Request: fold
Amino acid sequence: MKDYLKLFNIFFRVGAFTFGGGYAMIPIIQKEIVENNQLIDESEFLDIIAVAQSLPGPIAVNTAVFVGYKLKGFLGAVATLLGTILPSLVVIIILAIFYDRIKDVHSIQLFFQGVRPAIVALIFMSAIKLSKSISKNRFNILLMSFAFIGIVFLKIHPIFIVILCAIAGLLHRKKEGEYGTH
Amino acid sequence: MELIRLFWAFLKIGAFSFGGGYAMLPLIEEEVVNNYQWLTSTEFVDIIAISQMSPGPIAVNAATFVGFRHYGVLGSIIATFGVVFASFFLVMTFARIIIKYKKSFFVEGIFAGIRPSVIGLIAAACVSLFQTSIVDIKSLLISILVLIILYKSKLHPIGIIMLSGVFGIILYSI
Reply:
């Protein structure tokens, strides 16, 4: 029970402080799950993000369910799912009731004007930290650059990037196996 | 009956929108505004504004908002469960397979390719967020300030978020 509560607790914080959607939850999950509690390591975390990004649905929800299931099975996934969605459920209901009064409160808008650029910096640091978990060989650097250029400049959908890189990984492994090189 | 329609509509949104975040907006709009007409276009824009000031995935926020507007607290809970329903079972199924065959040639090969690409994906997300969030000198200043704090201290991301909000209030009030 204690473990489930702990998972719920961690993902409640993730749900409560994920502003800006999607990737904004990466720094918080990374801090809580990888660094503070060391429940999973960085390369596993990358795998989980890849799966969360490739399946339909919100990335934060997908990541939460994967982490919960991996650590504590079905009930673990229930705990992390509830933790992730409960804060937005409560906040949205409150905002929906008071929206007409809240939307013009100037200081709330200024607060979020400050938060948005901070999210960029947080995600940037996450990318740097996570990149330390993979070795900088030619293959990895090539795929990293391909993914980046593919999305930013060629506007390829992330799913196709993930699929192409999965195929490249398989072919690379196969070649390595045949020649026995690393 | 109405609640079942609500659940079903958000189940579809959860099951067919890839990429998370704002990538889910077109499908949400299609279902909620055009198809079921639960919201007007203006209300839909309001949801985006509300989502920007509340935490959590935007799809969950939209589900809660629509459910609450039309069917109260029960509606918000049902719509929210609808939107995460497909994710929950799909992710668990994939997690189970991946964990089971983790050491196999196939899964290892796939992730050897995917892992570096995720770094690229996150960096790319950073660029697109940069374009929408860094709009003036003040926002640039905040992001640089946060980078310095992150580099020099071990402050929790939640602390950073609260602090940057305060920066926002101070800087944009001057």
Remarks:
- Chain B has a mean pLDDT of 88.
- The CA atoms of residues 87 and 142 of chain B lie 35 Å apart.
